[in-house]
Design brief:
Length: 496
């Protein structure tokens, strides 16, 4: 459920300064200075390993093959394509849309520092938006999931071999889902900015669809967890409510269209949709910190003083992340990693670090700092905090291992990922059935197919990491871990 923003002390103790200093110092580098461009290339390559549908001729992850080519057929629609969210074979619309939004934001803010990888990043966005356009082709309907999660999770098989139920789930006027529809509208709007100059007609299609989907989400309000509880919970159940997604979508639509109606919507609904709630949360289920940071860019440029409260919330978010200022919802591991309760901690690390870096840039251009009681946070400090998290992921941590597969000398070998852990179709053309894959899941051997660029859920609060498939919270990669990391790596590849 949504929680009220918690207050933070207006001071940093001497111990806090020491904590901050220790967290900003490099712990141990696996190769001196990191090759951020190599990590960027691999972080984008990962998305090709997550593709569903008919793969294009220039597919670089060659051990993957076509899969789920009849998705949507049972509902009389074409829902092929898109991304598998993690190590399973389900297409969940909520995290897929958030992934697409964050890939788009990465390109919008950091595309100029991606070099030759910009083309691949844009292609990763388009693989997501092409699917979201299919999922929203029918007015007042959004197809939000393909595949029965319980059936899928009962099997360990390659996506190319799937014989589990490919049930299609949708929201409509009678069964609303403002959360997933709002995030889908946000993704389409953000992507329209990516394609504005690259493909104007495609950009217009994305923006027009975003407008239509947002109107549906706002007109027929409700949480998709209520409409589709048995299908989406506990996997991507909306715990936080749908209000933040409506505001998030309106912010992206305002950014993409510059239409006055969205500015007025944001101003009118700021209190109703609780823009100040849980200021230090950001992920597929909670957009509050992202909303505040994104709007603050305009405030800091002096273009939107009427949104000043959003900047105050963004400042509060920054202060709540500073090491040494105690906050019950944001902790740091002994090795310096941001840690929040719940599974797959790296999703918090990359998303929150992305916001630190984005806000740092906005502050820098406005020549501003963040006041935090008796201390303050400069743009340079926020960059160092974000970089410290990225360096931890790449190997500057107590175990001296990279949490990105294929990067560095030591990285996870037994990730919780069906396609990676089972022999490829090329190596083993014979069908591997639902339960026949169990022996590969339980095997102590490394995965036969390297899912290069995948970032796993990561270590626990004491920096320990079990490189083992059954420990899915630590060993499973997700698209929404990697999407914000793309922007971070792009920046640091140009500003090491």
């Amino acid at each position: 459920m949504a929680r009220s923003a918690l207050s933070f002390p207006g001071y940093v103790t001497a111990l806090g300064f020491l904590t901050l200093l220790l967290l900003l110092l490099p712990l141990r580098s696996i190769a001196g200075r990191h090759d951020y461009h190599d990590a960027l290339r691999k972080s984008i390559l990962f998305f090709e390993g997550q593709r569903s549908g008919k793969l294009p001729p220039d597919q670089r992850v060659r051990w993957r093959r076509n899969s789920a080519l009849h998705d949507g057929a049972t509902a009389g629609v074409d829902l092929t394509g898109g991304y598998y969210d993690a190590g399973d074979n389900i297409k969940f619309g909520f995290p897929m849309a958030f992934t697409t939004t964050m890939l788009s934001w990465s390109v919008i803010d950091f595309g100029r520092t991606m070099g030759p990888e910009l083309r691949n990043a844009v292609r990763a966005v388009k693989w997501g938006t092409d699917y979201l356009l299919k999922a929203t082709a029918v007015p007042d309907v959004v197809y939000v999931q393909v595949g029965d999660a319980y059936s899928d999770h009962n099997c360990w098989e390659r996506p190319e071999d799937m014989d589990t139920l490919r049930t299609v789930y949708k929201i409509d006027r009678a069964h609303p889902g403002s959360d997933v529809a709002g995030e889908t509208a946000a993704a389409l709007a953000a992507a329209s900015i990516v394609f504005r100059s690259r493909d104007p007609s495609y950009s217009r299609l994305l923006l027009n669809r975003a407008v239509r989907v947002f109107e549906f989400a706002d007109r027929h309000r409700g949480a998709y967890s209520s409409s589709l509880h048995s299908a989406v919970c506990p996997f991507y159940c909306d715990v936080n409510g749908y209000q933040d997604e409506l505001l998030w979508a309106a912010v992206w639509l305002h950014k993409a269209s510059r239409r006055r109606e969205y500015r007025e919507y944001i101003a009118k609904n700021e209190v109703i949709l609780r823009a100040g709630d849980t200021i230090n949360e950001f992920g597929w289920d909670n957009k509050h910190a992202g909303i505040n940071v994104l709007i603050s860019k305009e405030v800091l440029r002096g273009r939107a003083d009427y949104f000043k409260s959003f900047q105050q919330n963004a400042d509060g978010f920054i202060c709540s992340l500073l090491p040494g200022i105690s906050h019950p919802q944001v902790q740091y591991s002994p090795g310096g990693l941001i840690f929040k309760a719940g599974g797959s901690n790296m999703q918090h690390v990359t998303s929150l670090s992305f916001l630190l870096l984005a806000y740092s840039n906005y502050l820098s251009h406005a020549n501003k700092i963040v006041p935090c009681g008796e201390t303050s946070a400069s743009s340079a400090l926020l960059k160092r905090l974000a970089k410290r998290q990225v360096d931890y992921i790449l190997g500057d941590n107590p175990l001296g291992m990279s949490y990105m597969v294929g990067y560095g000398a030591r990285y996870p070998q037994r990730i919780h990922h069906r396609a990676s852990s089972l022999p490829s179709v090329g190596a083993h053309p014979v069908h591997i059935g639902c339960k026949a894959g169990s022996r590969y899941f339980l095997s102590p051997n490394p995965n036969p197919n390297q899912l290069v660029g995948a970032v796993v859920g990561g270590p626990n609060s004491s920096d320990a990491f079990p490189d083992s498939r059954p420990f899915f919270q630590e060993s499973e990669p997700t698209t929404y871990i990697n999407a914000p990391l793309v922007g971070l790596l792009a920046f640091f590849s140009y500003h090491p």
